[in-house]
Each structure stands twice: as C-alpha cells, then as structure tokens.
Amino acid sequence: AQKITQTQPGMFVQEKEAVTLDCTYDTSDQSYGLFWYKQPSSGEMIFLIYQGSYDEQNATEGRYSLNFQKARKSANLVISASQLGDSAMYFCAMSGITQGGSEKLVFGKGTKLTVNP
Amino acid sequence: ETGVTQTPRHLVMGMTNKKSLKCEQHLGHNAMYWYKQSAKKPLELMFVYNFKEQTENNSVPSRFSPECPNSSHLFLHLHTLQPEDSALYLCASSQHVAGSYEQYFGPGTRLTVT
Asked: How much is the average pLDDT of B4-32?
C-alpha cells in the first residue's frame, strides 16, 4: 500500500522568499507518479506539478519545482519568490491502484503555508 | 463552463433528509471520483467510476449512494446521514490512460449534517 507523509503541519515564509514543503512516500511499486496540489480556502484542489518515477530530471512548472530524490523516497515542493496568493494548504499525493484495479491518488495530510507581507 | 463543477457549494441537512450532490466535468475525461475531506485528515477516496461503471467502493456506508448516468455527470445521493458525515466532498475526473493519474478537482460541496 502507498503512503504519503507530510511532517510540516504549518509553514511560514516571507513574501518573495523561497520555501520548501516536505513530502516522503512509501510504495512497493516500481512505476508511480508524484503530485502536488494546492487547496485555497475556497476548497478547490488545484494541480501544481507532476513527477514520474522514471523521470530523470526534476519537474518544474513556473515558480514550482519538485525536488525528487528517489533513493530517499522524497518529493519536496519548492516554491520560489513566494506571493501572498500562495497562502493555502498544499497536498502531496502519489498514484496507486485500488483493490478493484482502478487508478487512485493517495494524499498526505497537507501543509498549511502562510506567506507574510 | 470549464473544468469540473459541483453543486451545491454548501449544504446543510438534517439526519432525516435526502439530498443529492452533483458533479459535472467538461474535460472529456472517462473516469470520475468522489472524495471525502474531513478536518485534519487526508482525502479519502469513496467511489471511482470508469466509463460510467463503478469500479471502486471504498467501504463507504450505504447511506451514500453514487450514480453516474454518463461519463460527464456524477451524483452522490445522501440519506439518513450522521453528524460525522459533515465534511467537504470533492469530485474529480481524469483521463484513464496507462501511466497518467492526474486528476482534476471541482470546488467541492461543504456539507453540514445537523
């Protein structure tokens, strides 16, 4: 079974600075995907970035980058040049297969990021 | 409309009521999901539909009844709920392609059971 661990319940960062949100995972699968989602107070889960387990380069999407260290089973999210609008909950997730053979995402408990002006 | 929409956004219901949550995706995806998000807990997968067929029921109580009339619409029928069912219910969709698991979420329905 897959498991995602996010050890930081809350993080604070000053506007324009970079911040790293931690994520470790556990799986016995050889092929898997890792995701980060942002959830503002409005509730919608917004997809940010994806990393495949066989991708050799770290994924980047604008100000978001995923620091993928396969041997350590970590997939940390780095947000550069933080903005006030980045304040939200951030969830790390990984792909998996249900007992019924369906695709699923397994989520961590999330990290609440607060960007201070 | 674009993406994944959910209605209503907020719902308050008594334990004896019957209500339905609606989800619609405009992305041409063939898989749809219901998740439950309770306070301080990870998202819990409830149901999965692939090509309109239910492929997963993650040990959800029978007071939650899903319905998927076509690949664009997903409903969650609610009856005789309990206060502990109060949560944010999120719908998601994805394109069922091997190796691609990216899911797109709706804004959720915040349900309060009184």
From this structure: 93
